[in-house]
Every structure is written in structure tokens, then in C-alpha cells.
Design a protein that fits this description.
Layout (H helix, E strand, L loop, with lengths): L3 E5 L4 E10 L3 H8 L5 H4 L3 E6 L10 E8 L2 E13 L3 E6 L6 E10 L2 E11 L2 H5 L1 H24 L1
Antiparallel strand pairs: 1-2, 2-8, 3-4, 4-5, 5-6, 6-7, 7-8
């Protein structure tokens, strides 16, 4: 089954939620997808991740990400603001014209795990005008990312 996508919010908000069912345990899915070091393997747009704090992942951990999105290079730092091992991971970035919050949830479903990836943000400046296009592009990219993650974990 392909990932399911959902979009909410006003014209200047981005709230994109995509989920997929992965035939692995929540512990396995969370261990792999919740490790930022693995992000370049399954996120099409993420090029590099470098730890600013020492692993392992915990509330307060900070990582520098380099990504390519809509033809532009983006550099941003995520900070872990919530972590419930095997259930939920929430990271936020506040710098730049488009502060983002990314939430991973891993829920047991049947013989596998429902992974949901949600990106929310408040567009400001020029990006405020582009928020609807950003939402669509993020939904497409996130759907591809979860498809790639599913393929890796089910191989």
C-alpha cells in the first residue's frame, strides 16, 4: 500500500502528514528511521547529517542537515524536543525563513508498524507566498521518502 498523505492548515501554514505501513516491528522501524545518521539513505533530499551533540539521540540533541529542495541547498539545525523511544520523535528548527517541526510516530498496526511523518511550519517573508506550492512539493517528497524507507526496512 502506498503512503497516505494529508495536508491541513491555512495558506501561510504548512502541515503535511504522510504515513505508510511497514512490515517490521515498531522497535525496528523506530531504531532505523529515528537515527538521523540514516536519513540520507531514505530521504531523497537530505545530503548530509552531522551531529552537533554526541550521540545517542535524546532530548536536546542537535544535528546539522544539508538538503536540496526545489533546486536550492538548505542548511539547518534540528533539535530534538521530544523523544518517546519506539513511539514518537519530534525535532524542530527555528532558523531561516521557514522554521519547521518534524514529527515521527510509530504505531503498531497488524503485523507491522504505521509510520507517520508530519512536517509543520509557519511560512514568513517570501516563503509565505510559496506556502501552497511548498506543501505540495513536501507531500510528494515525503511520500517518496516513506516509500524508500519501507523498501529498505522490508528488504
Amino acid at each position: 500500500m502506498p503512503p497516505a498523505a494529508d495536508q491541513r492548515g491555512s495558506a501561510d501554514d504548512v502541515d503535511v502528514r504522510v504515513s505508510t505501513l511497514i512490515a517490521r516491528s515498531p522497535a525496528d522501524v523506530a531504531a532505523y528511521s529515528g537515527d538521523p545518521t540514516n536519513a540520507p539513505a531514505w530521504y531523497e533530499n537530505i545530503r548530509t547529517v552531522e551531529w552537533r551533540t554526541e550521540p545517542p539521540l535524546r532530548v536536546g540533541s542537535r544535528m546539522d542537515f544539508t538538503a536540496r529542495f526545489l533546486g536550492r541547498q538548505l542548511n539547518y539545525t534540528y533539535e530534538v524536543v521530544e523523544l518517546v523511544p519506539g513511539e514518537r520523535l519530534v525535532m524542530e528548527t527555528s532558523q531561516g525563513p521557514f522554521p519547521m517541526r518534524t514529527t515521527y510516530t510509530w504505531t503498531p498496526e497488524g503485523p507491522g508498524t504505521r509510520m507517520t511523518l508530519r512536517n509543520t511550519g509557519r511560512a514568513t517573508g517570501f516563503s509565505k507566498l510559496a506556502a501552497p506550492a511548498l506543501s505540495s512539493a513536501m507531500r510528494r517528497a515525503t511520500t517518496k521518502d516513506l516509500t524508500a524507507l519501507k523498501k529498505i526496512l522490508e528488504a
